[in-house]
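Record format v2
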Amino acid sequence: MHILHLMNANQRDANVAIHSVRHISEISQGVPGKELNFLRYLQATPNGLHESLSATCGEEYSQALIDGDPEIDLDLIGRTVGPTTTVYLSATGDVMHAAPEVVDVLYAPDKSEKERRAAEDTPANVREDVPVQWTGRKMSKTDVICRFAFKRTIQLQHVDGLTYDFLYAMAKELHDENVLVLVAGGETGKEPLVMQRNGIPYRGFLEGRIDGEKYQLLLHLSNMELKRFE
Amino acid sequence: MASNIIVQIGSEVSEFSLKKLERAKLYGKRRRLNLDLDGQPCTRAELTHDGSLLIKSGMTSQGYFDEGRNWIPRSELVGIDTAGNLVEKVPSTLGVTQDLEGPVPVEEVLDLAITSVYMLDAVEVAPSLAESLDQGDTFRFRFNYRADYHAECAYLVKNSEGFFVLVGSPTTPEWCELERVAVDTGEEESILDDDLDFDMF
């Protein structure tokens, strides 16, 4: 169960359960009457890659492929590939036996490199001591759907009677006002939400709906505005 | 270049050209690079667990296989619903007039699991539609970029920047009731797969 530490407008906080709201497709692809498996398999060995073939057979090696099948290793080709371990190769193609230096490269929208700096891990900020907070900034539903594209939606759910009251009251307030409230994380209460370490920073918009004693409290996450690009 | 989006409401037809909107095109992007001892970019490879094979880029492929380990080409795959019935392929909706429905409730758009967003340029917009969109109304139509077995929903919106289309599939959030408390099963549902912020994997 995933947990979100949330504070309401009255500075009361609680840990509540969250889960993703997904579309479940009712259509799959297959062949009637057959059970299919999706498998990853070996289609070439190092000797069958372009660099190796061009070194051994010359740049124009197409006829060599037809004549002698030098790219096919009958012992290995077609073998299913199971779990593997990631390794890094140096620029010369050797396996690195020491951890590589890690840098973050920032690119501008025109794809030009803007900045290169030592990589920094971004910690998650939704399950920490500091709760996710209401910013007080409320926006109409119409305004929100016309300004932001949402990448995912997380539904909040109570874990006991007290958190039911906590979340229901929140949902009712938002429902009655017909607005979404911007929520944020971190010590300042203004940081975008990072759901997991090194995760995408999102702006979070909390929406509430009620139907009698039932409620829906939905955290819509966006990392993109509806804006034109050149 | 993709054909245009053509929609009709009543007897009025509107037409838009489209470009895919992505975060990198608006704000740029961050990419995590691994460098070797000489400061040159590393390449990623894989080692099989038995250590017998170093797998480099281009050495693997993937596909569907039947019980007898026979490869099944993608061209032989068909759409099948949950009851096992064959599903007809849905042709692309681009360049073909689609019925525009609405205005739709705002919650319907909020319940959309968005898969893509398009920025539109108006070729021709019906005056009544333009007026309705200016007031914040939203309209729904069927959208399928290319022929496949699943047509998506699209929602036409407008803001001060212009016209946009949000494409995706509807979701149905559950209603929470006092008696139904979230239970910790000990299993961490993967709610955030594909969420890492680095183009490093």
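The longest strand of chain B covers residues 112-124.
Chain B touches chain A through 99 residues (CB under 8 Å).
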